[in-house]
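Project standup — Tuesday

K.O.: blocked on the structure for the chain from last sprint. Re-posting the sequence here as requested.
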Amino acid sequence: MSDSFIYTSPADPLARPLIDELSHEYESRYGEFYDREGGQREMEKYPPELFTPEHGGSFVLLLRGGQAIGGGAFKRHSDAHTAELKRVWTHSAHRRQGLAAKVLLELESQALRQGYARLYLTTGFRQPEAVGLYLGHGYTALFDTTLPHETYRHLPFEKTLRAADGLNPATTVTVAPHLLGVGPAAVLAQAA
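H.V.: unblocked you, prediction finished:
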């Protein structure tokens, strides 16, 4: 079964597993640190419109057999050349397959297609898998990595984007037609 990417919205029913599982994961990792409803509140922090091309963002799902197994998004950051990555996720039943890396590379390519030159992100101090993913894909930590991650709570990273890094900014992007008000969702591309 091949994997495919689709550009859609966090409000798309296909995204529900991402939203639900991320909320649960945030609550299980950070619940006693913040509060019991922190995961759901975090997931509702940003309106879905921020992740649309009209607002400088994008939201992608990685599908297998029509089901979301991964995904992620970016939104415009504080300057016109920077996008902020959000919600890079892999379904718990599909981890350790390199899917988060596929999603990350797709988001980087899409950011280039949308004219961004830099990516910024923060991840939580209790997400060592995410720290490893970003460091392993050329992101620069904007914090002292020798100190305990709890020192910072939010761990910021950045990366300058270049097509020469193997990203494909020339790929034609198809958004899910239901975002345009017509037809069923369309697939962007087969995932490698």
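K.O.: great, moving the ticket to review. The two ends are 12 Å apart (CA to CA). Helices lie at 16-30, 38-43, 99-113, 128-136.
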